[in-house]
Amino acid sequence: MAMQPLVSIVTPSYNQAAFLQAAMDSVLSQDHANIEYIVIDGGSTDESPAIIKRLQRQLAFWVSERDRGQADAINKGFAKAKGKYMAWLNADDRLKPGAVREAVEFLEAHSNIGLVYGDADFIDAEGRLIGRFAAHQTDYARLLEGYVHIPQQATFWRSALWWQAGPLDENLTFAMDYDFWVRLAKISTLHYHPRLWAEFRLHADSKTIQNDMHAWDDMLTVHRRQGGSPLSIITAKYWLRKLLFPIIRYRRQRMAGVRD
After folding, report:
1. How far is CA 99 from CA 21, 30, 31, 82, 108, in A?
2. Nearest to 155 by CA among 85, 70, 58
3. What per-residue confidence (pLDDT) applies to 87?
4. Mean pLDDT of successive 10-residue segments in the chain (260 residues)?
5. Which of 95, 185, 197, 255 lies in disulfide reach of 26, CB 3.0 to 4.6 Å?
6. Is 4:35 a contact under the CB 8 Å cutoff?
C-alpha cells in the first residue's frame, strides 16, 4: 500500500488551556495516518505547556516561548513543515473526524485545485452546537469585494503554494488568513467542498466575539494594497458593518452564551 501524503498541521496557542486538549485530540485522532503535527505555544502561563508535554511523543515539533503573536507562531510552525498539504487549527477550535482524509482525497483527485475548504459548525465554550459558518464558493475577485466565506478551520492547501504566497503578514492581527487566501487565489483555484470538517468555537475571549471590526480594518488594508478602489463593494460593506457592529456583536454574544 502506498504511503499516504504527509499533511502538516500547525496549532498556535497562547493561554488556551481550557480548549487546547480538545483541539490537539481532534488532530491526533484523525484517521489519516500521515500527519506531521506542530504546536507553537507563545509562552503560556496557564496549563498549556503541561498539556502539550503530555502529548509530545505524538508531535513532530513543539515549543513554548514568547513570540510576536498568532501570525508569527503560525509562520514559525510552517517553517518546520515538510508536508505535501498544509492546514492550521487554532487552539480553541476542533477538526471533525475524517476531515484530513477527505481533504487529502479531494486534493489528490483534483490537481487543478490549490486550496479546498469545507463547512464548519459554530460551537460554544462547552462544545455545544450553536450554528453553522456561512461557507460558499469564492474566488480572487469576490474575496476582494469582501465575500470571504472561507472557514479557516476547515481549510487545506498544497504546501507548494505556501512557499509562493506565504508566509502570513505578521502586521495583520485579525485578517492574516484573509490576506493569505487573497494572495493564494491570485495564483491558484480555491474550491468549496460542502463537507463538515471543523468546529469554530465562539467564547468570551475569541477574536470574533471581542471585536471582529479589526478584521475588516485589516481587510481594507489588503484590498488597498491589491489595487482596490476606495469606491468599492468591500468599502461599502465595511461602513455598513461598522454601523451595525453593536447589533452583530450582541447577536454573537447571545449565540455563544457570552455576557459583557
Report:
1. 18, 7, 9, 20, 14
2. 85
3. 98
4. 88 97 98 97 97 98 95 98 98 98 98 98 95 96 94 98 96 93 97 98 70 80 87 86 73 68
5. 95
6. no
Q: What is the pLDDT of residue 259?
A: 62
Residue 190's contacts (CB-CB under 8 Å, 6 or more residues apart) are 113, 114, 115, 116, 117, 137, 138, 139, 150, 181, 184
Strands 115-123 and 190-201: parallel
pLDDT at residue 210, rounded to an integer:
55
CB-based contact 89:12 (threshold 8 Å): no
pLDDT score of 2: 66
> What pLDDT does residue 243 have?
82
> Is the CB of residue 20 less than 8 Å from the CB of residue 31?
no
Q: Write down the residue that cell numbers 469545507 correspond to.
A: 118
- CA angle at 56 for the pair 43 and 19, rounded to the nearest 5°: 60
Q: 154 CB contacts (<8 Å, ≥6 apart)? A: 99, 117, 118, 119, 120, 133, 135, 196, 197, 198
Q: Which spans in 87-232 are helix H? A: 99-109, 140-144, 159-165, 176-185, 207-211, 213-225
Q: Give CA–CA dist 255/253, Å, rounded.
A: 5
Q: Residues, the chain, total?
A: 260
Q: Which residues of 172-199 are buried (b: 16+ CB within 10 A; e: fewer)?
A: bebbbbbbbbbbbbeebebbbbebbbbb
Domains of the chain: 7-256 (3.90.550.10)
The residue written with cell numbers 463538515 in the block is 196
